[in-house]
C-alpha cells in the first residue's frame, strides 16, 4: 500500500460511517431529514500491513477534514431515498514534501425499502441499496486524489429494536460493497464486508449514541494480480452526544480506532447538525 494512499483510505471509511442513524424506521412520504457532518483527524499513527499500530515512516503526517451533506426523503410508504455529497481537504507531509488536495469527493445515492412497501405488517428492518459514482482518479505521485475513479455498489440490511417506553434503542447494519475496476488504471479495490452496531437513547434535551463499526476488505487487484499486503480492515468505537439547538440538534463525538490494517490510527473528532425537513 502506498503511504500517501492512507488519507484516501480514511475518506472511504468516513464515507461509510458518516450517514445519520442507520434506521429501520423509514421516512414517511414527503418527510425526511438533512444533516451536515464534519470529521477531523491529524495523525502520524497508522495500522500497518501486519495490523500493528505504529508511527508512519519517514516522519509522515496526515491531516484530513471531511464534510458530508446527507439527506433523506420518503417517496411512498415503505420507500425512501438518500444521497451523500462529500467535500474533503487532505494534507500529507513527509520527507519528500507537503502535498494537499481540496474539493468534492465521490457522491453516493441510496434507495431503502421496508416491509410496508409490500403491505406487510411493520417490523423493524429495512434493506438499503446504493451506488457510489466515480470521480476521476489523478495518477500523480505529487497529488492526493479525492476519489478512486471506479463505481461501487452496496447492499445493506438494517435492524433495530426499541425498548419503549424506556427511551433506549438498539440498531445496526450489515452490508457488502462490490467494487468495480478502474479501467483507466487497471486497479480494482477489494470488495468489503462492513457492519455497525449502535446503542442510543434520549434524556430531556440531550441524546446519546455509541457506535461500534468495522470493515473487512478483500485484497485489491492491479491488472488481475492480487495485492495481499494491501488488504484493509478496521474496528472503531464512536461515542457521541447531541443537544437540541434551534430546529435541530448539534452532535459531537470522537471516533477511536481499536484495530486495523492499512489504515490511519489516530482519533477522529466529529461534529454535526441534524434537522428534519418539517422543522425548518
Q: Give the proportion of residues in helices.
A: under 10%
Looking at the structure, what is the overall shape? globular
Radius of gyration: 19 Å
Beta-strand level of the residues, as a percent range?
A: over 45%
Largest sheet: 12 strands, antiparallel, barrel
Can you describe this structure in just a few lines?
With 280 residues, the chain is mostly beta strands.
Fold and architecture overview:
- The structure is a single chain.
- With 280 residues, the chain is mainly beta.
- It has a single domain (3-279), classed as Autotransporter beta-domain (Lipocalin, Beta Barrel), CATH 2.40.128.130.
- The chain is 4% helix and 58% strand.
- It is built from one helix and 19 strands.
- It has one helix at 6-17; strands at residues 32-43, 45-47, 53-55, 61-76, 79-94, 97-104, 108-113, 125-132, 152-162, 168-179, 187-188, 192-203, 206-217, 221-222, 225-226, 233-245, 248-261, 263-264, 268-276.
- Strands 1-4-5-7-8-9-10-12-13-16-17-19 form a twelve-stranded antiparallel barrel. Strands 3-2-18 form a three-stranded antiparallel sheet. Strands 11-14-15 form a three-stranded antiparallel sheet, with no helix packed on it.
- The chain is globular, with a radius of gyration of 19 Å.
Please describe the structure with a list of short key phrases separated by commas or semicolons:
280 residues, 12-stranded antiparallel β-barrel, single chain, Lipocalin, 19 strands, mainly beta
Chain-wise SSE layout:
Blueprint: H1 6-17, E1 32-43, E2 45-47, E3 53-55, E4 61-76, E5 79-94, E6 97-104, E7 108-113, E8 125-132, E9 152-162, E10 168-179, E11 187-188, E12 192-203, E13 206-217, E14 221-222, E15 225-226, E16 233-245, E17 248-261, E18 263-264, E19 268-276
Antiparallel strand pairs: 1-4, 1-19, 2-3, 2-18, 4-5, 5-6, 5-7, 7-8, 8-9, 9-10, 10-12, 11-14, 12-13, 13-16, 14-15, 16-17, 17-19
